[in-house]
Amino acid sequence: MAEMTSLDQFDFHDRLEETRGPVVVLFTAPGCSSCWHWKRFLIDYAHMHTGLTLYQVNVQQDMALAHEFGVFHLPAVYLYLDGRFHCELQSEARRDRFDMTLNQALLAPPQEAP
Fold this sequence. Notes:
Layout: E1 4-6, H1 12-18, E2 22-28, H2 33-48, E3 53-58, H3 63-68, E4 76-81, E5 84-88, H4 95-107
Parallel strand pairs: 1-3, 2-3
Antiparallel strand pairs: 2-4, 4-5
């Protein structure tokens, strides 16, 4: 069963470095309805795509990580691959669009971390 594990500034980098395969990190806030929609979407998506790990960061509790990544708009979605930053994902929260965006991102070379 897919779930979304919360990360904070103290375990963010270590946990991501340890996680193999594709990882999606959702930067979110409790009062953000779009964030809630993305969280539900990603959990449902991960149920159908084994091997995808999900993490979330609450920017209200972890302003340092939000600042590090330059997060000014929520939700923000980032892709990591085999423990390393790969890219920011910009997609609609629809399975067909997200599939296309994720697959294209995985085929592209990694970008520099923010």
